[in-house]
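Sequence in, structure out. Go.
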Amino acid sequence: MIKDLLVKYGYELSLALVWVVSTVVVYVRGKIAKKNSTIKAEAEANAKAVEKANAIEMAKQAINQFIKDAEQMQNYKGAERKAYVMTRAIQLAGNLLTNDEIDCYIEEVVGLSKQVNCKK
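Output:
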């Protein structure tokens, strides 16, 4: 029976089969392309996030050095030292961290330093 159908409608069936297969191939290629573009966009976003995190970490290390430099300033008050550190930090990391984030980080480091240096 199938053999009779193929003989009778073989050409039409083969055209229909070609159309179905080509439609499936186009659909699958589209899905793969969409998935690849999504993966690429996610990878780029992750790379940017890692790059920013590394830049922030380097900025914090530089801020630590600014704090050490400020601690060596004997003739200045604490507020003047902090202003020095804030100015240098904003110049370095103003595009990575907000002024409030820089201020909080300085307070955190200075507070930790005071705890470590506290005499019992």
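Check: The helical segments are 2-71, 78-93, 99-117. The two ends are 100 Å apart (CA to CA).
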